[in-house]
UniProtKB/TrEMBL annotation:
It comes from Sphaerimonospora cavernae. GO terms for molecular function: hydrolase activity, acting on glycosyl bonds. The lineage of its organism: Bacteria, Bacillati, Actinomycetota, Actinomycetes, Streptosporangiales. It catalyses: D-ribose 5-phosphate + uracil = psi-UMP + H2O. This is Pseudouridine-5'-phosphate glycosidase. It comes from the Bacteria. Signal peptide: none annotated. Mn(2+) binds at D134. Substrate binds at K82, V102, S136, A137, D138. Homotrimer.
């Protein structure tokens, strides 16, 4: 694993660092906007006084912290794989490049000593789980990785109640940031309640310290930060297009790993790009909050 000089220096000095995933760059946005957003997110972290650590695998080497050239490769290189934790070893052995998902990013960030990670939405339990038992590897990784992940809930194409139940079973703590309800990714609320609520980055950092003091299983802390109501996707539009997308997927026999990109792309097209803008609004807010939490965490007053 190669940690950039900037990130290594910040960690050595006890300064705040925020991990950022790279799949939003390689697979989530069209060119050239993907590179613009990658630079924007790193800028948001810096403006809040933290150091960004975008994570990816280049030529088989996991990188924690990318320079401009590395970001450009992730944004423009054709054929990049999406790398979860299970894919890191094959990519390393075969010298391949790829963008890291939540599971891959969480693992590499924690290995590097980074405690806070910002993303858009998590993976989770898919609809129809009782028939196909399709569950994101994100949940397993978060159940055994000490990382604080700031997100806008799980992708709304998933089974949100089942996902929350799985997180509870796997002992992953979920707190709402200034909300009593779990966010709905594109939507301000999924309608599902959360058991714990925090109001400030300092309160969040306090939970992180309590996790360490208890010395229990190395589980994650999920900080569920909703997209503002004024920036969310119109709920009625979301529900209508998602219903159409699920029906189209069933009719076309789309299953397995193909289902998530199919549904997300259908939502982008069916909402005229509005779902993508809501997603980006959520990512920006999560990145800003993650930087503030990282600063509170490293203050250790």
């Amino acid at each position: 694993m190669r940690v950039s000089d900037e990130v290594a220096g910040a960690l050595a000095d006890g300064r705040p660092v925020v991990a950022l995933e790279s799949t939003i760059i390689s697979h989530g946005l069209p060119q050239p906007r993907n590179l613009q957003v990658a630079l924007e997110l790193e800028g948001i972290v810096r403006e809040a006084g933290s150091v960004p650590a975008t994570i990816a695998v280049l030529d088989g080497v996991p990188h924690v912290g990318l320079d401009k050239t590395g970001l450009e490769r992730i944004a423009t290189e054709p054929g990049l794989r999406k790398l979860g934790f299970r894919d890191l070893a094959p990519a390393a052995a075969l010298g391949l490049s790829g963008a890291t998902t939540v599971s891959g990013t969480s693992f590499l960030a924690a290995r590097a000593g980074i405690r806070v990670f910002a993303t858009g939405g998590l993976g989770g339990v898919h609809r129809g789980w009782t028939a196909v038992q399709d569950e994101s590897a994100d949940l397993d990784m978060l159940s055994r990785t000490r990382i604080t992940i700031v997100c806008a809930g799980v992708k709304s194409i998933l089974d949100v109640p089942a996902t929350l139940q799985r997180l509870e079973t796997r002992q992953v703590t979920v707190v709402g940031y200034r909300t009593d309800h779990f966010p709905g990714f594109y939507l301000h609320s999924s309608g599902e309640p959360v058991d714990w609520r925090v109001e400030t980055p300092a309160e969040t950092a306090g939970i992180m310290r309590a996790q360490d003091a208890l010395d229990g299983p190395e589980t994650a802390l999920i900080v569920a930060n909703p997209v503002p109501v004024e920036l969310q996707l119109d709920p009625s539009l979301h529900d209508r297009v998602l219903s159409e997308a699920l029906r189209a997927a069933d009719e076309r026999g789309v299953t397995g790993q193909a289902i998530t990109p199919f549904l997300l792309e259908y939502l982008v097209e069916g909402t005229g790009g509005a779902s993508l803008e809501a997603n980006l609004s959520a990512v920006r807010g999560n990145t800003r909050l993650a930087a503030e939490i990282a600063a509170s965490w490293t203050a250790r007053t």
